[in-house]
Amino acid sequence: MNTVLVTGGTGFIGSHTCLCLLEMGFYILIIDSNVNSSKKVLNKIKKLSKIPKEDDNRVDFLKCDIRNEDLLNRIFKKKLEENKKITSVIHFAALKSVSESDQFPLKYWDTNVSGTISLLKVMTANDCHTLIFSSSATIYGYSKDGFLKESTPISPINTYGKTKSTIEQILNELFHSQPNLWRIANLRYFNPIGAHPSGFIGEDPFGMPNNIFPLIIKVASREIDYLKIFGNDYDTKDGTGVRDYIHVMDVSEGHMVALDFLTKNEPQIIQVNLGTGKGTSVLELISIFEKVNNLKIPYKFVEKRKGDVAKCVADNSLAQKLLKWSPKKTIEEMCQDGWKWKEKRF
Ligand code: UDP
Q1: If you measure from the C-alpha of residue 131 to the centroid of ligand 1, how many angstroms do you get, rounded to a whole number?
Q2: Rounded-to-integer distance, Cα 175 and Cα 159, Å
Q3: Which CATH architecture has domain 2-193+245-275+316-321?
Q4: Are 139 and 161 a contacting pair, CB within 8 Å?
Q5: Which numbered atom of ligand 1 lies nearest the CA of 282?
Q6: Closest to 68 (Cα-Cα) out of 32, 30, 100
């Protein structure tokens, strides 16, 4: 039996993707340093996936920092000995706060880029050449109309985005060094929000979040008095920033189809946007959240946030054409499921 290694598998998108993998019958090994997530999610994933007790060995977890090349190597060897060779990797493990990345660039370059290099070295040494990489729409930076195709020039404006685009570059070079060997998908996420519809798993970052959706949840649950809206004079429909919010389950599904595509086709490297193609402003997001959950989100306008762009929306036609993937869930479902996840924890 082959194993899919999932780095960062206890995090937000990682945990939802692990659930999909289990439901699809894969054997998975999750590694995570747990610096920003908890191992507790494992039991929930197992329960949700309804795998029978005797199949418990389909999911394995090891606490491991991807920069620890030695440990990574031992993990690959151990799985081979168990007759569960790691043949593909879904690589989520990374630090992801844009503001923190500009404050502590070395930490970001080290974890994200050095960590990925160490993972790639170990994959190479252990004959594993299929990789799905968590990239980000942040790599596009400023663009003319905020509507982003995979061919839009890459010019990230923050350290986080730069680490992601550098990794894409490394993966490109690696692929071209042996084009008959590697199967690589760079999945460029737009703004994943929401939670599993059961409300059992969701986004659970340590400390104070920077992203809008977990902050709306905090306002809704009265942990914060009001939401600060960064700017109201952008050149957008209502002056507030426009983003392409996408349900985390649709993003996870994107990994399933990418893995299937890579394994069934010739070695290649692909870059694919995972977004809905629909833009939602901050004010629209708040109003939809209020409506579907029947509550109020107080807000105040404040100064623009440094480095924010007015609009960032995916052209997702490549994902539709190449991977036959299209997002199914509405922004209303994102708001409902995200709040359900919080309510379950009261
Ligand atoms: N935003 C905001 N207040 C916050 C956090 C975010 O008004 O406290 C806005 C931000 O300016 C942007 C949108 O919400 O227009 C999405 O921001 P987020 O940080 O979630 O994602 P990103 O900017 O990385 O796309």
Answers
A1: 29
A2: 24
A3: 3-Layer(aba) Sandwich (3.40)
A4: yes
A5: 14
A6: 32
Per the listing, tokens 């959240």 go with 289
Tokens 């960590």 — which residue?
115
Three-state DSSP class for 128? coil
212 CA distance to ligand 1 centroid (A)?
5
Residue whose Cα lies nearest atom 16 of ligand 1: it is 212
Model pTM? Answer: 0.97
Shortest-distance atom of ligand 1 to CA 190: 25
Q: What are the boundaries of each domain within the chain?
A: 2-193+245-275+316-321
- Distance (Å) from CA 169 to ligand 1 centroid: 27
Which residues' Cβ are closer than 6 Å to ligand 1? 98, 191, 210-212, 215, 228-230, 241, 243, 282, 305, 308, 312
Closest CA to 1 of 83, 80, 76: 83
pLDDT digits (tens, 9 = 90+) for 250-291: 999 999 999 999 999 999 999 999 999 999 999 999 999 999
